Amino acid sequence: MSSGSQAGADAFTHLGEDVRAALSERGFSTPTEPQRRAIPPLAAGDNALVLAPTGTGKTETAMLPVFDSLVAHREQHGPTAGFATLYITPLRALNRDMRERLDWWGETLDLEIDVRHGDTTDYQRQQQADDPPDVLVTTPETLQAMLTGSKLRDALTDVRHVIIDEVHELAASKRGAQLTVGLERLQLLSGEFQRIGLSATVGDPEAVGRFLTGKRDESDGDDSNGNGNGDTDAIDAQPAVKTSLDSQSPASVDRDFEIVSVDVGSRVAFTVARPEITPEDEQLAGELATTEEMASHVRVIRDAVAVNESTLVFVNTRQTAEALGSRLKKLDVSLEVHHGSLARDVRIDVENRFKSGDLSGLVCTSSMELGIDVGRVDHVVQYGSPREVARLLQRVGRAGHRHDQVSRGTIIATDADDTVESLAIARRASEGLVEATDIHDGSLDVLANQLVGLLMDVGEVSAREAYEVCRRAAPFHDLSESRFRAVVRELDTTRLCWLDEECDTIDTAGGTWQYFYQNLSMIPDEEHYEVHDMSSRTQIGTLDERFVVNFAAPGETFIQRGEMWRINDIDEEETRVNVSPIADPGGEVPSWVGNEIPVPRAVAAEAGEIRGVAGEQFARGADAAGVARDLAARYPAESATIEPALNPIEQHVDSGHPLPTADRLVLEQQANTVRLNSTFGHEINETLGRLLAALVGQRTGSSVGMSVDPYRVEFEVPSGVGLAAFQDVLLSTDPTHLESYLELALKGSETLKFTLAQVAAKFGALKRYQGRSRFGGDRLLDALEDTPVYEEALREVFHRDLAVDAASDVLDSLQAGEIDLELVGEATPLGSAGTTHGQELLVPENADASVIETLKKRLRNDRILLCCCHCKDWDHTTKVRRVREQLECPDCGSTRIAALNPWAEEVVTAVRAEEKDDEQERQTKRAYRAANLVQSHGKQAVIALAARGVGPDTAARIINNFREDEADFYRDILAEERQYARTQSFWD
Question: What are the boundaries of the region Disordered (predicted)?
Answer without folding.
Answer: 212-236
